[in-house]
Amino acid sequence: MSAIGTLTTHHVGLNVTDLDRSLAFYGDVLGFETLGKGAEGESRFAFLGQDDRLVLTLWEQADEAYAPARAGLHHLAFEAASLDHVRAAEAALTARGATFAYEGVVAHREGAASGGIFFHDPDGTRLEISVPQGAQDAEAPNATAPTCGFF
Q1: What confidence tier does 1 reach under pLDDT thresholds 50, 70, 90?
Q2: Residue 116: predicted pLDDT
Q3: d(CA 149, CA 101)
């Protein structure tokens, strides 16, 4: 172990172009509750979580959509409790008109038990909802490499 100890992810902050639109997406579609809102200068922000635990902050300070070719976030992955929860999220996202990188639940690689869905938020940020087990019967878009690497 390093001198600083074990680190875990506390929360992730995302820049968004329209806070209200993103709050509707992350709240209404993905089920995060708004824990707090505020403003700092001209930037508005919101804290989102589940069971009073902070998971995500949204900052309305971006001038343009997510750009995959820039350094920084590749994608943000959430883990669901079951494959049924992943499929329920897929149905909610489909009803909302979300865009998907792959059709349906896919395995992380051929024969892997882990897998999920890969989609985009309103600003184009790449998101994943997956499970560690249960996707072994799903096809993988990439046989040997992790699916999320080719998002």
Answers
A1: low
A2: 97
A3: 12
User: Bridge partners of 117?
Assistant: 129
Closest C-alpha among 126, 124, 134 to residue 150 = 126
Q: pLDDT tens, 17-55?
A: 999 999 999 999 999 999 999 998 888 999 999 999 999
Other CB atoms within 10 A of residue 16 CB: 25
**CB environment 39-60: b (16+ within 10 A), e (fewer):** eeeeebbbbbbeeeeebbbbbb
Q: Give just the sign of the alpha carbon dihedral 35, 19, 38, 76.
A: positive
Residues 6+ apart with CB under 8 A from 130: 77, 78, 79, 80, 86, 108, 114, 115, 116, 117
91-119 pLDDT, tens digit each: 999 999 999 999 999 999 988 999 999 99
Q: Distance between CA 82 and CA 66 in Å, rounded?
A: 29
Q: Considering the entire predicted model, what is its pTM?
A: 0.92
Name every residue whose Cβ is closer than 8 Å to that of residue 37 and which is 6 or more positions away in sequence.
Answer: 44, 45, 46, 47
User: Cβ contacts of residue 9 below 8 Å, gap of 6+?
Assistant: none
